[in-house]
Design goal:
It is a single chain. This protein has about 160 residues and is α+β, with helices and mostly antiparallel strands. The protein contains three helices and eight strands; from the N terminus they run βββααβββββα. The strands form two sheets. The protein has a six-stranded antiparallel sheet, covered by helices on one side. It has a two-stranded antiparallel ribbon with strand order 1-2. The relative contact order is 0.24.
């Protein structure tokens, strides 16, 4: 299902050398108490441009019979989901106070998002989002063409929502 990176121990969908896409971004001094509360802050109140991107993704992906994901839902459960449940368009693989492992897999690609919270030297916490993708066919490669440049922009904007700064 997933492996742990040898250097960081963060979850990946495959060994780093075998990935078709890898992106990692962090914020120091995360304002959230748990990784789930950070996820909720990052994905609530999705900006119109991101909603439009999800809508376009769903329309384009429908040509290859890929399920619509409809983006992030603004209403999240008050209590964290359990492993095996859905969180937005992801399957929850594992969840704890300091780690959330999410996966989305179909016949074209497998995506794993690992969100990790770690204490820093001060009183705050660092939040790291790791995205890893393994393509399974040509459509998976094609799908990643627009996602590759957009993903870091999206994640960096989401991280701003949980930073003290």
């Amino acid at each position: 299902m997933y492996i742990r990176d040898k250097k960081t121990s963060f979850a990946l969908v495959a060994d780093k050398a075998e990935l078709d896409y890898f992106h990692q971004a962090s914020v120091k001094d995360c304002a959230s108490a748990t990784v789930y509360s950070a996820y909720c802050k990052m994905t609530n109140d999705c900006p119109a441009w991101l909603q439009a991107a999800f809508w376009l993704r769903d329309k384009m992906s429908a040509l290859a019979n890929v399920e619509n994901i409809k983006g992030f839902h603004n209403k999240k459960p008050d209590s964290p989901p359990k492993a095996g449940e859905k969180l937005d368009f992801f399957d929850v693989v594992e969840i704890s106070e300091y780690e959330l492992i999410l996966m989305s897999s179909d016949r074209h690609l497998s995506v794993l998002i690992a969100i990790n919270m770690q204490s820093n030297e001060g009183t705050g916490k660092n939040l790291t989002i790791t995205a890893s993708v393994k393509n399974k066919n040509f459509f998976g490669h094609l799908y990643m063409v627009p996602v590759r440049p957009a993903h870091s922009f999206i994640v960096n904007n989401m991280l701003k929502k949980v930073s003290f700064k």
